[in-house]
Every structure is written in C-alpha cells, then in structure tokens.
Amino acid sequence: MKAFWEERYAEEDYAYGKVPNAFFKEVLDRVAESPGRILMVAEGEGRNAVYAAQCGWKVEAFDQSEEAKRKAMQLAKANQVTLNYAVSTMDGLQLEKEIFDAIALIYAHFPKEKRQAYHRQLSALIKNGGRVILEAFEQEHIHKQKDNPEVGGPTNIDLLYTVEQLKVDFLDFDFIQLDVQEVNLAEGQYHRGVARVIRLHGIKKGE
C-alpha cells in the first residue's frame, strides 16, 4: 500500500483537496475555545492538520508516505503554520501515553485484523477528558462505490467499518456523536459523490 500512496500523493494536485473535512472542521469550530495538542493519524497531504494549526492547535501528524509529508509541509508553509510531521506507520509510532488533548482519524482505514489494536493504541495516547474525532467509510459504502467509483474509499469491505465495531474499539469514550450518515463529498479528485460514512466524536472517560 505504501507504493500506492506514494504514487497518488506524487501528483501535482492535492488528491483530496486543500480544504478540511467538513465534520473535522465542524468539531474543531465547536471546541474553538480550548485548543491543545492534537495528533493527526494517516494525515496525507495535510489539509486537516493545517486547519487545526490555523485554529491554534499544536499539531503532530504522521503518514507512511514521504510524498504526503512533502505536500503537507508545502501546504503548511503556504498557510504560514507549523506542523510536526513524521513519516511512520502505526507499528513504528513511538509516543508517550496520555499526552494528546485530541486525536483525529479522517479516513484512516486499518486492516480488519489490526483495526481494534490500533484504535486502542491510539486511545491510550489521549488524556482523560480528551477527544477522538473520526470519519470513516461504513461497510454499506461498498454499494455507493458500485454506483459511483469516483466517491472513493477502500474497495475491500474488510477495510470498512461499522458503528458496532467502533463502539467496542473505543470502549473508554463517551460519545457526543456516533452515527451513520450519507454525505455528499467534494474532497479533491478522489472523494466525489454521495458516501455512507460513520462520524464519531468521543470524550475519554476519567478513571
């Protein structure tokens, strides 16, 4: 998969545009009074990380793609913000527990056999009272792809999620929002059309 993403992000245009994901923007705008330290997971070309930095968050991000980082840093420079961006996989991530006020997973799809472990690994990085923000394609999205391949998303159903899976993966969270929606995506070249997505906004429970 690394080669796939290197090729996609090597294109001159930003594959998913330069504008932040609508749900991510909505949540950040709602909690604008309390920016802190945020980790952007599988961040790609930086559209969401740059927006978080513009909102006053201290942004750390990672992706497995060198080209993704290059484009993200280019976008950050154009917007006069700072990102701490690492090239890494989930398995290569080395961070202390409970250091982030928020973690965002915007279309960060993990293999079925690793999904729960990765989500719990990320959850451990969040402080009590911190938040997780996630938007991902739901399993029934596979039918949207058949109607319109331009809508994007993994074509392997094992990489798509269900609400029930995420409830278990994020057991340590109270959910402000966790639902399935059909949304009209207009994110660059590869997310175009009506998609079936899960939107999750949760607060980590205290001990």
UniProtKB/TrEMBL annotation:
Pfam families: Methyltransf_25
Keywords for the protein's UniProt record, in alphabetical order: Methyltransferase, Transferase
Highest taxon, organism lineage: Bacteria
GO BP: methylation
GO molecular function terms listed in the Swiss-Prot or TrEMBL record: methyltransferase activity
Methyltransferase domain mapped to chain residues: 38-130
Stored SUPFAM superfamilies: S-adenosyl-L-methionine-dependent methyltransferases (SSF53335)
InterPro entries tied to this protein: Methyltransf_25, SAM-dependent_MTases_sf
UniProt protein name: Methyltransferase domain-containing protein
